[in-house]
From TrEMBL:
The protein's name in its UniProt record: VOC family protein
CDD domains documented for this protein: SgaA_N_like
InterPro entries: Anthracycline_SecMetBiosynth, Glyas_Bleomycin-R_OHBP_Dase, Glyas_Fos-R_dOase_dom, VOC_core
Record-annotated VOC domain positions: 10-123, 137-260
Cited PANTHER family: CONSERVED PROTEIN (PTHR33993:SF10), GLYOXALASE-RELATED (PTHR33993)
Lineage: Bacteria, Bacillati, Actinomycetota, Actinomycetes, Kitasatosporales
Sequence intervals crossing the membrane: none
PROSITE patterns with a match to the protein in the record: VOC
Amino acid sequence: MLTTRYVTGAPNWLDLGTPDLPGAESFYGTLFGWRFRSAGPEAGGYGMFRLDDRTVAGGMTVPPDQAPPGWMVYFRTPDADATAAAVRESGGTVLFEPMDVFDLGRMAVFTDPGGAGFAVWQPGTLQGLEVVNDPHSLCWTELYTHDPAASMAFYGTVLGMESSAVPWPDGTGTYILLNPAGGGDDSSFGGVVPLAAEPAEADEGPYWMPCFEVPDTDTTAARAERLGGSVRLAPTEMGGVGRFARLTDPYGARFAVVTSTPAEQP
């Protein structure tokens, strides 16, 4: 599971690029109770989405001619420059070279060989998000890809990720879990979904999707639609996991929500 005791290869940051930051602030504020706090003029408009005075994500304005709206998942690295070199050597692309963000840390942005965008964060004074797994915070990530095997080989090389195929609790198939090196399934932070199994997602190509824990998936999906978002996958019961839905905000940024099934007590 995700934890704020961040380790190499696991997600440690998340941010939203949107053409309308005030509109996104209104949408996520109403949907999740988030409030946006600017990081100051020196940060170029970047700021933090906060929930109960804890950072749940970052956000910034990105003009449509620069990039489409979307969520970016960051993974912890001890050395952003070494990771950038590994990305190049493994067939990925460096979109933004490693750069210092004040004394907070060092970041870089890439695409994997299939075209999915991702980023890394080398912590300085900022280790990462201040809350995960709680209601209305990040609880899971998924990679949608045309070639799961090639993707896992890439991320294993550049970030040390490990993967394992596990059966769904209801016996309907298997699912590929992702975890940091040596962590085992108990430390899993995400999964891999073949785009061939999700035709509705395939048209826009490979991507990383964040998933947020919510108290009620159906209520959240209906509210997102009322606020101008859309439902890409209607609320669906995922056996042994919880009730899951894929959504977009009003500007097209894709994300998911889940109401997790409570863990069985020993």
